[in-house]
Amino acid sequence: MITTDRRSRRDSLQGAGQFKTTYGADQAVFPVAQDRVVVAAAVVAAFVVPPPVASDYWLQAVLIPFLVYALAAIGLNLLTGYAGQLSLGTGGFMAVGAYSAFKLATAFPHLNILVVFVLSGLVAAAVGLFFGIPSLRIKGFYLAVATLASQFFLVWLFNKVAWFTNYASSGTITAPDRTLFGVVITGPNSTAAARYLLALGLVAVFAVIAKNLVRGRVGRAWMAIRDRDIAAEIIGVRPLRTKLLAFGISSFYCGVAGAGLVFLYLGSAETLAFDISISFLVLFMVIIGGLGSILGSFLGAAFIVLMPIVLANAPHAIGLRLPVALQKQIELMVFGGLIIFFLIVEPRGLARLWQITKEKLRLWPFPH
Amino acid sequence: MKIRRIWIAALAALVLAAPMLAAAQSKEVFIPLLVYRTGPYAPSGIPIADGFVDYFTLLNERDGGLNGVKLAWEECETQYDNKQGVECYERLKGKSPVLVNPYSTAITYSLIPKAPVDKIVVFSMGYGMSAASDGRWFPWVFNFPTNYWSQASAVIRHIGAQEGGLDKLKGKKIAHIFHNSAYGKEANPTLDELSKKYQFELSLLAVDHPGQEQKATWLQVRRLNPDWIFMSGWGVMNQVAIKEAASVGFKMDHLIGNWWSANDSDVVPAGEGAKGYKGATFHAPGTSFKVHADLLKFVYDKGKGAAKKEDLGAPLYNRGLVNAMLAAEALRTAMTKFGNKPLSGEQVRWGFENLNLTEQRLEQVGMKNFTHPVRVTCEDHEGSGPVLIQQWDGKKWNVVSDWIAPMRDVVRPKIEAAAVEESKKLGYTMRDCAKEK
């Protein structure tokens, strides 16, 4: 049944595409040659073009937050999109990353900043593992409520215990100046371009790792758990290990993103920067971008970060001078409307829209 | 009499300068305004933004700007949110501003490290990082006329006076209800030190953002039964707290808000219950000043006002006026040295550092008895200005105290110590003020 179906489809595509003769080729990160070229070109362009071309505003207020949130969205997508564990603790795990990065960087000033980022990710992973334990017993919305507890507890903890902020009277943590290869890369004296490149480097590396994770054994185990956990258990996937691994790795990503939020984007932050709204924001990115898609994490982050900025600047660009309050309200309404629009048009997210477009283009100009 | 003469001179200058106005218009000083007219902090954000804009409109309409240099500004909505504030700052940085008013302690903390790099003065009037009052370490940040630590000490002095002397504070219970953020926590170290010095019992009660839910806090208040409450609230938190205080039957004249927690919008929702509520301030409430008459004449009668006419004179509206006036006078000071032209960030910084706002100058700008003179120096970016206590009588605010001096002997050493601490994080070195002149 399946074989004939596949054969007939292949027949209909004869001469109009690329064929895979091995499983390996079929499971490549980017099975289509054009995809490989486009993605490679996009990554190279992202490294080369913005630093000299983009203004400080673009780097600081648009591209860096986009990258930081994209990393957090990848993290949550691994947990929610691939492993099916709904989490509202993202903000808390990001806070763990941010505060451990701050503590590590100030306690060990000579520690390489990349090591600081990775270590703070590991601390977040450990905390994530701990808060992932309830996932073994509860699912869905109930799990979301349990992770909500971690969100509130962690933020409360960093607010309450002054040790985390090195006893700063205001409870604010400030990113110190740190260098990498002789260039100041974090802190007030770093250029936006340097911080952008570091953020991009981190995101590129971790996105590749995530992409490989989800197409390997670990990712398949996650998806099996997500799709039917009892069936997965029967075929030999161990729920304890798989779920906790998802929590750990996801929290690692969120932790690194949290460290990036303070060290690369804001420069200084208080716990308010990690409150529940961040958890929702990242969850919206994942839902709008596409659950279970790395590309979707980027698209979702781009949508949520860029759209308000586009909407805020649009009236100015066309020469319309609105009172700021009215403009903000219009912005919120249009933004909300767009979210609803996209979810109705394509409930599986922007990544699915992109996939449909690609498939249509592959068959273009002859649909069948 | 004198004012009229200045007036006539100004008008004559305006007529003479009229042909040059077209040329002058291209010469502008640009000031970005990070405002919040939406969200949970809008009740506080709107009046202050209106006051600020109205004063600048007044300067442009009445005097043709500052010495012929027009003032230009643009508002950007931050919703009192750190990230949106940074985005606004970066967006408006492209228009080469010379100073920025963040209107949020958290945003101020984010902008302080950028100030010396971007050469933009951070003017956090009565908010932001208290430690930045030490100008030797923070040349680019100004928080005059007074800061949170000075305010806390002045409020304790007021409480002491009400109790019959500071020595009577011994054994009293004072609670600090604060917005759980960089802003709200700012006063805690000073209160802590004063509690040791005067041996009162200090309880710190945090209220989480945005402050709509305070049942737990007021349950604690009932349990503690404090003699006095000092409150550092903002936005919607204030009105909720005052309503809660009224409903638990706390003595309203023993509840003192800081200068961000005592506006009409904070007390009106509590109705009769708010009667007697006190708040700190560093300028008078009401509209009985010349500047208000000018505002009505030159701004509101021309339909260019930002607020509703009846909202003039609210404490936060007046605070916006004071903020704009202080910024304008600092620019004017810079112009005496660098000429009547658009200024660079460095020049504006000099203007702020050498601002000497005298009683006489206040009279000239129509603010006699409205606020206190300020003198800024290289060492002292705060001025350690005195504080007033105002009280709500159910209809309007009345000033019920004399100018209360902060306890500089306690506050200044703390500031100097904190400045060293904060500077260490930013990798600053102390400059030698003797070499500045």
Q: If you had to describe this structure to a student in words, what would you say it looks like?
A:
The complex is a heterodimer of chains A (368) and B (437). In chain A, strand 2 and strand 3 (183-186) form a beta hairpin. Chain A has a two-stranded antiparallel ribbon with strand order 1-4. Chain A has a two-stranded antiparallel ribbon with strand order 2-3. Chain A contains 16 helices and four strands. Chain A has one domain: ABC transporter involved in vitamin B12 uptake, BtuC, CATH 1.10.3470. The mean pLDDT of chain A is 88. Chain A has helices at residues 2-13, 23-26, 33-48, 50-53, 56-82, 90-107, 113-132, 140-160, 192-215, 217-227, 229-234, 239-266, 276-289, 294-317, 324-345, 350-363; strands at 173-174, 178-180, 183-186, 268-269. Chain B is of the alpha/beta class and 437 residues long. Chain B folds into two domains: 2-147 and 285-384 and 416-435, Response regulator (Rossmann fold); 149-284 and 389-412, Rossmann fold (3-Layer(aba) Sandwich). In chain B, the strands form four sheets. In chain B, strands 7-6-8-9-10-13-14 form a seven-stranded mixed beta sheet, with helices on both faces. Chain B has a three-stranded parallel beta sheet with strand order 3-4-5, covered by helices on one side. In chain B, strands 1-2 form a two-stranded parallel sheet. The longest helix of chain B has 24 residues, at 2-25. Mean pLDDT of chain B is 89; it is low at 14-26. Classes of the chains: A mainly alpha (368), B alpha/beta (437). At the A-B interface, helix 5, strand 4, helix 14 and helix 15 of A face strand 2, helix 3, helix 4, helix 7 and helix 16 of B.
